[in-house]
Amino acid sequence: MGRKGAPESCAPRILHLGVTGHREGNAAFDANSEAIERTISGLFAALETRLGADGGLPAFRLLTNLAHGTDLVAAEAALARGWELLAPLPFGRQINLALNTPGLSHTEIVAVADGGAPGSPEAHEEYQRLVGIGDKARCLELADQDRLVREGLETLTRVDPTSRVAQDVGLLIAERTRAASMVTIELSDILIAVWDGLSPSASGGTRDTIGKALAAEVPVVWIDARNPAALRLLADPADLIAAIEQPRDVGPEPIVEAIAQAAESGWQQMREACDHLDQSMWRAKSARRFHAYRRVEAVFGGDGKPLASLVQRYEDPANPAGGSQGSMLYELEQLPGADVRFIDSMKRDLMPRYALADGIATYLSDAYRGGMVASFFLSAAAIIGGVAYLPLVGPELKWPFAMFEFLVLCAIVAITVAGTRGNWHRRWFGARRVAEY
User: Fold this and answer.
1) How far is 329 from 436, CA to CA, in rounded Å?
2) What are the backbone dihedrals phi and psi of residue 62, each rounded to the nearest 5 degrees, phi first?
3) How remote is the C-alpha of 303 from its chain's centroid?
4) What angle do CA 218, 220, 222 make, to 5 degrees?
5) What sign does the CA torsion over 170, 95, 87, 330 have?
6) Rounded to an integer, what distance in angstroms lies between the CA atom of residue 408 and that of residue 414?
7) pLDDT tens string 94-137
8) Is 222 helix (H, G, I), strand (E, B) or coil?
9) Distance between CA atoms of 236 and 334, rounded to whole angstroms?
10) What would the pLDDT profile of 255-313 be if each residue is shown by its tens digit?
């Protein structure tokens, strides 16, 4: 039995803001840290005001790697406004704490990585600051290389900081940082970057992250660490070069307006995509009348089963764990230290939406492509049927063949009208977009 409609909140208004920037110790950041904090807080407030003016306040999510410096400044500003904080961490949380607590020696870093706490009051205070922010964040710990990182940190206590071994450890840490930064970029609608315009592009550093974001078509709001009131909106790598060579500083208003328009456009597109679910009927299995395209694939695909049944049974939105996703959920539950709340939220929120959108998209793809293939075959049949009288009968008996051709052409027109009125192609792509998201 079909179920009409999409799950609630199919297209929520959410803005994902990524943050990258200098750590403490950068000269420009240290000299202007208070101004940088005011600029970031002002930008957050302006976005709330602008986007809350139409249709209520959207949900804001801040993505940051929780490095000491810009990341923490932005994280605290976001938490103060009640925003959700998402933290892709380059390492497991304890190693991340060790590497981001300022003022620690190599020996102390190893001790903190093993679960200890800093000895000095100043370092302990910063450590607790990091712990408090991390407790309020949803952390994605990229901990698969932690054993190697832990061994590398211990190695640093015994070797010359300028040695090749120390450089290799630094490269490993930089690559983990880069991996976390890529997660931030991929999940962000826009990236806010605090950069002095001078620091080189080390792997995983601020300049590198800006370049990767622009290459991925993620817009960047560049806050100049030397002059935090100077904002620039970058849309592609050429903009960054132009901004460095010929700076054109602008106030926050046009940047906030550009962000708001882009966000609203994206939300509108997602609402339109979700509308395809509201207008469609979910079905438990595919329809044989739409199998023409896949039958051609079966016949000429070389899998040796040209006449096998092509009926597909779609994932049940009411019971996604009972389908193909069940094995994945089982594996997640068996992971050491599995986050039960996360797995439950997947079962409750993610998989029903995916199952519904995927089933509808697959059904509509069969309908559109099956109708297209059927029209091709019927076109050939119309031509053949229309001229078939020539070797068989005289012109006086041509009319049955002409009638056959006319009826076949009517069938083609009927398929075309049905596909056009049903928006098969547009709804197929819309539902597929929702499923992929």
Assistant:
1) 18
2) -105, 130
3) 35
4) 170
5) positive
6) 10
7) 999 999 998 888 899 999 999 988 888 988 999 999 999 999 99
8) strand
9) 43
10) 888 888 888 888 887 777 666 665 456 788 888 888 888 888 888 876 767 788 888 88
